[in-house]
Hints:
Blueprint: E1 3-12, E2 15-25, E3 30-34, H1 41-49, E4 56-61, E5 64-68, E6 73-74, E7 82-85, H2 97-107, H3 112-125, H4 141-153, E8 159-163, H5 171-188, E9 192-196, H6 199-205, E10 208-213, E11 216-221, H7 223-228, H8 233-238, E12 243-251, E13 254-257, E14 263-265, E15 275-279, E16 284-286, E17 294-305, E18 309-317, E19 320-327, E20 339-344, E21 350-353, H9 367-373
Parallel strand pairs: 3-9, 3-10, 7-8, 8-9
Antiparallel strand pairs: 1-2, 1-4, 4-5, 5-6, 10-11, 12-13, 12-15, 13-14, 15-21, 16-20, 17-18, 17-20, 18-19
This protein binds adenosine-5'-diphosphate (ADP) and magnesium ion (MG).
Residues 12, 15, 17, 35, 37-43 line the site of adenosine-5'-diphosphate.
EC number: 7.6.2.9
InterPro entries: AAA+_ATPase, ABC_SmlMolc_Importer, ABC_transporter-like_ATP-bd, ABC_transporter-like_CS, Mo/tungstate-bd_C_term_dom, P-loop_NTPase, Transp-assoc_OB_typ2
GO molecular function: ABC-type quaternary ammonium compound transporting activity; ATP binding; ATP hydrolysis activity
Amino acid sequence: MEIKVEALTLKYGDNVAVRDLDLDIGEGESVVLLGQSGCGKTSTMRCIAGLETPTTGRITVGDNVLFDASTGVNRPSHKRNIGMVFQSYAIWPHMTVFENVAFPLQMQRSSKADTRKRVLETLELVGLEEFADRGASMLSGGQMQRVALARSVVMQPSIMLLDEPLSNLDARLRHRLRGDLRELQQRLGLTSVYVTHDQEEALALADRIAMMQHGRIVQIGTPDEIYGRPRSASIADFLGVGNILDVEAVDSTHVRLAGADFTLRVPAYEKATQLRAAIRGEDVLTADDRPDGNIITGHVLTREFLGASAIYRVEIAPGVQIEVYGSKHRPLRGGEGQEVRLSIDVDAIQVLPLDVDDLPPADVPTTAHAEVAA
Ligand SMILES: Nc1ncnc2c1ncn2[C@@H]1O[C@H](COP(=O)(O)OP(=O)(O)O)[C@@H](O)[C@H]1O
Ligand SMILES: [Mg+2]
């Protein structure tokens, strides 16, 4: 079912965790809330789940109003028909896998036969059919998360909320379960909100990514859009763009590197008070490979060998370093201390404001403060 969040604000005392947030999620869509720790992802989820009472706003799922501050509607959490999976393995260790998944159905007084059928179907869905009779404490972390997932899915929830469900797993398992989750989400057509601080996980799992900073959504779009066209340098930085250089405007197609005496030719950009040039390490080539780009001379500071590739740190002006990727087919000829000539294609540079312009200051005084001051 569709989810509609309107003007949602949640304050914990003076601390504004969610700030006037709007979010529309389509039927069967998977939206990932992505952002640094503390930006308000879990708080937003908990409001949808009914585990927090928002300060203001409205939350609707399908035709059902779950919360509306203006009319006083606030449906209790257990009556929202929402499936939830969290980071911690919220399963009962003294029960078997079967009993764990059957539990919510028994609470609903489903018949024995119906319960058995639905539990076994769901266990098959998450790849645990052979583990039905095993004690839940005898499972690996990945299997425990599958049980938690099955227990949510068995209730045929109208929507699913997943809050960093993979972050306690080791890298390999995380990878595998990530793929399985995406498949399950698509197969069941589940409308879901997935929270993570891991950009790779977000890119892999999302139909759309909602980037959050300071309790707000600062950009929303498909993984391609967010990765290809971040709206600000701080978003680009979070998405792993290796080079965020402090620059000053010269004219509409040139910027000057702060603290250096050379300019870069760049695509047309919008003026802002603080500008940064965002450049991916893989887009910096050698001058031999691309003689028509911005040519920069620098000194190799370090070379980090990664097997298939290597990352070089090159000083291009006093105190200004850039990260350059070299691969087997495109090595950066030059060891530590040597001079190299680099080339950056005009189109590989994005000149961006440091932050999205409409971002309010971090600590807006709250009513509580105003009252104290009065
Ligand atoms: N129970 C709480 N009481 C007070 N402040 C909280 C509580 N939970 C979260 N916060 C604060 O709200 C902000 C958002 O937190 P949270 O939603 O958990 O962020 P995220 O999930 O993105 O890491 C943070 O500043 C955090 O310290
Ligand atoms: Mg969180």
